Amino acid sequence: MKSLNIIISLCMLLIANSLLAQNNIPIDGEVTIQNSRYRTKKTQYVIGAEVKAISEAYAKPQLTDNAGQFKLIFGDVDQGEEVFLSVTYPDLRVVNENALKNLSVGQKAKVKVYMCDKAVQDLEKMAYHKINKKAITKKYDQQITLLQSNQKNQQRTIQRLEQEFETEYRTKNAALQALSQKQLELTQKERQLTATIQELQKQQIATAAQTVALKDYEQNRQLLQNQTKTLAEKTVEVTEVRLEIELYKEKMIELQATTSQQEKSIDSLAQKLALAKDKDLIIDKLQKQRAIALKQAEEIAAKFAQVNLDDQSAIYIKAFELYQQGQVATAIAILDSIDFEYRLKTNAAEIAKREKQMKQDINALVLNARMKITELKFKEAEKDYDLAIQYAKDNYDIIFEFALFLGKQNNFNKAIILYQNCLELTTSAAQKADILNNLANLKQTKNELNNAESNYLEALKIRRQLAKKNPDAFLPDVATTLNNLAVLQKNRNQLKKAETHYDEALKIYRKLAQKNPQAYTGTLALAINNLGLLYTIKTEFKKAENYHNEALKTYQKLAKKNPDAYILYVANTFGNLGFLYATKNELNKAEIHYQKSLKIHQKLAKKNPDTYEVHVATTLNNLGLVYATKTELKKAETHYNEALNTRRQLAKKNPDAYEVDVAMTLNNLGLLYVTKIELKKAETHYNEALNIYQKLAKKNPDAYDLAVARSNINIGILFYEKYKRNTTKKELKTKGLTLLQNAETYLTKYSNIPTVQKYMRLIERCKNAFENPNVLSDKQKQFIEQTFQVITYYQARADSLFKIQAYTQVLQEYKKSLIKATLVDSLAQNDKTVAHHLSKNNFPPSALRAKYAQNCGNTSWYALFAQEYATAQQYAQKGLALDASQEWIKTNLAHALLFQKKYKEAEAIYLALKNSSHKLSEEKTNVQVLLQDFKDLEAAGVIPKESQEDVEKIRALLEEE
Question: Is 346 in contact with 269 (CB distance < 8 Å)?
């Protein structure tokens, strides 16, 4: 029994000791000055730096000792719990901050922290950025200068390449053609000889038969012998020909085998010739690459500023020194001269001995990849990264950096695989959140929306938890993911969710911008703009307008200090306001803001067309939409076509990026031509758009299937328009229904998306319409198709006459332009059937009524100058009845009433306009507009004398404070 008691006691003691160890788990580390051994041949340690935990796991803060060493002891934690550290020392900054974020309590590896002077690191970042920018610009300028050299030299190059190509091509083809021709001739000869032999054989058989029957046996026998001899000769000849054919076949095979190098030469020449002839294409590619590289230059500079040369190989240090001197190409050449693949393979076999050299070689490969990015050598950079991660399969930082690079190169699938590898490698919550956020961005681009949302939500959950422990470090990340999630939810029509997340992100950015305006004011403006766009979609226009105007003011202030960085954002915010006013149907305001946006974009595009032409095209397209809604169809067509031409040029150079924009404008033009009843043109444009979407959908179905479906629906509706004009053509119905069925096929797997549900309802209505077509009479067709021509012609003519002050004629001409408006009124009252048809027409009735209201308002204005005041009142009232939102027409009504001595009625309108918050003009107050009207009417001498006193009273009333 005693023995047993002793054993139990010992066990209890061991357990107690084990528990005690669990409650005192260390993390060791050292803090040194970055590059100190490299610069002074001696490692310089940071003495007295404060090291502390900034997570829930607690350890008493420590100061580094004389050897820069520290040991934090954690209590009440489990082995492996994730912690974050902070290291501070006056005037010094931690260089490798990532080393402090991904730590586990009790880890074996010592934490190595590098610090440097804050001002020195900032200067180094600036210097490295300058080196990168210079290298990129130099590389770009060299190639562009070469391509944009003297036109005569360019032409001579093309001529020389054409001659070389022709010579090479002719030499090879001549030999092959000669052999082929000879082989053909011999084959024909063989056929002729074979036919001759067959004929001789027949003759020989016939002669042999005759020989037996004829008396003159000897003579026939001689003939038979001669025939036999001839037959033998021909048989030998055909055998020889066959042998010769075989010989030529062998020569053909031999020649084809020996000309593979020549074919490569020809292919190379053909490529050079194509490139020489299409130098614009090369220039565009170089400019695109340069733009990408310049964006990465600052990011790479920050990575270079974190390099600690104390840990690197001699070859790394040599290359880095050359880089610091701006000799990037020489640095790359030195690193390229080393067979890293062989060295890594060899060292991998002796991993225990060569681990340090392998690590240094991998670092050198990554350095080479980064420098190649500055040299626009993206494919070569990718190869270096590939080789590096082949031997650094557990190196999270390199794999993550590579995935980030691939994402920027639009290599989404490979980037996703690498990010998934990173998820398996890390236990750090912060790193997992980074990966999930980036994965969601890529999946959203690929239209994998469910997966993207799931990744965003998981990243957000982690980042919220991290921000509770360390808000300074992680609140910006929370805001980023909130914003990304809101963008996705807005695109999925989950507007309430999007609003919640946008609003939370905005609140965070406001706090961040208060603490650090230089870092976060631009991001804050972007968040404000995002909410503005959302409220536009939700038709909460007042909120949208307030947010966009706040963003605009912020960007305008930033642009004054740094126009290169922020003037584009100013232009885009004008565009957002244009979109807002277009959605509100305040089309004049929309036009004004889009024009402001266009003006800035065009100015930027003159300096840098490759970067900004895309923005010009977008704004032209948007202006086209405004003009189409205003039924200013000629202007709409002009702007659409200008946008289309620009987008075609962009797509020619970079189809993957811009073909989708071409398809969008083609669709808009198709709808415009449907409105103009030019159905053939509409079909041509719709079909071209469909072909583009189908091609894109083959590569990325999730991103473009909905666009294919929408295009099928558009063309299906077009066939319905044709069918209802001629129901005897049953093939139109068949084609239309087939297109609608095609659309349904594409939409089936996306049934949970609200847009798809809307498309499905539209398809169902279209199918029903085909079964019960709203057939047009010839009179109705003629009425619809002629009305736009009538109204456009007379409006243009009346405007022209008004400029030469032919007021009476203007009034008569403009009255003619109201044929359509008058018919609308008449039909609405007297012909419900036709009115119903008009409401189902190809153009929006509200837009038409707005246009007719505008015509009525213009007619009332012209009537004032023609001194037909009752007519002016009549048409002003008619215009307001058609579209009450066009408040500018009230000015004409007030003037007409005033000049007819209806003072009280006129005064009420003037006062209402004076006090109205709705502006009649973008540039003037309502009072200024009314006073200018009086000036114009007085100058024309059309105000009645008896009304002059009343006019002065109204003037005084308007000018009162």
Answer: no
